[in-house]
Amino acid sequence: MKKSKRVLFVVSFLVLSLFIVSQTGLAQGAWREKMKEKIKENIKERRSERAGERGRVNTNIGDYDFSFEYGGWMRTYKVHIPPSYKTTMPAPLILSFHGGGGDSGRMAIDKYYNLISKSNEEGFIVAFPNGVSKVKSGKRATWNAGSCCGYARDNKVDDVGFVEAMLEDIDGKYSINSNKVYAIGFSNGGMFSYRLACELTDRFAAIASVAGTENCDNCAPSKAISVMHIHAKDDGYVLFDGGSGDVFKDKSKVTNFTPVPETISRWVRRNDCDSSPRRVLEKEGVYCDLYSGCADNVRVMLCVTETGGHSWPGGQKPREKADTPSNAISAVDEIWEFFKSQSNE
To answer: Which secondary structure element, helix H or strand E, spans residue 94, and what is its range?
Structure first.
């Protein structure tokens, strides 16, 4: 009915305009300008109607690819929008950083990391940024996480600046709850999440790292921030007690990794937490220790699996020669529960 009225109005307007032109001798150019203005008004009205509809129906759900130039590099990222998303309800956002030698496409495969299904279940938006690679396809990419790793570190890529620009880009496209923005990562991506906690603290509510310790030369967070770390005791790449494993053929591409206990101790001190943790989970193959009493009610948590090597607990291994993940816990489930408990404080 509204559409019919609009059509009738436009037709009436055209007839009236033609009559005025014939009667008053308005110049043809002036008449066209009036018509252009009317068309613009109609377009603006339709856009406003569609914007209102987006608040009621999920017109933006699905998977998308975006890119923009930053720091001389063409940077890309993927976004998954869950079915529950509505522009009238700002959603939590997780940035998920792939491991060294990986890419955003692999990180977005649900059977490996379970992030898409968790997004659909819990209603958060998840973005998968891509690191920098010397390969045109963007595969085999790395992150500049301080003293690690590879191509991104060696070329002094401003990945922190890229993330800040990407957050602005996402915020311009979707309705994001700025108080519930999180960073997670695997291996080199986990190390980079720590760097974000050090240098871009104000943009994140919490970070979580799986199989990647903090290897920043300088870390000066602007506020207390919640940190979660998951690591396997038998990790042969990023060794639990520090150093890089013999699996690396060229150790110059990585670094002498910080021990897991030292990484946790740093954040306990920075967040002014109680030095003695409380064991919140202990079962076959895994335990989790929680440090509380921290500044601003943040938390620090460490979960250690007995097995799993260098992998993502609860997922499937992404290639035949990769380590078999521990099934003692689901990394994504534990991380999301940690994030939710922090946001509820």
So the answer is: strand 91-97
pLDDT band at 343 (very low <50, low <70, confident <90, very high): low
- Cα–Cα–Cα angle for 181, 185, 191, nearest 5°? 110
241-297 tens-digit pLDDT: 999 999 999 999 999 999 999 999 999 999 999 999 999 999 999 999 999 999 999
Domain shared by 79 and 45, yes or no: no
The residue written with tokens 């992030």 in the block is 115
Residues 6 or more apart in contact with residue 295 via CB below 8 angstroms: 224, 271, 272, 273
Asked if residues 257 and 297 have their Cβ atoms less than 8 Å apart, the reply is no
What's the domain count of the chain? 2
Best CA proximity match to 239, nearest among 267, 263, 211: 211
Please tell me the distance from the alpha carbon of residue 202 to that of residue 160, in angstroms, as a whole number. 13
Q: pLDDT for 23-59, tens place per residue? A: 444 444 554 455 445 444 543 444 344 344 444 345 6
Domain boundaries, position 201 = 62-343
Using DSSP's 3-state secondary structure scheme, residue 33 falls into: helix
CA distance 195 to 255: 15
d(CA 209, CA 228): 6
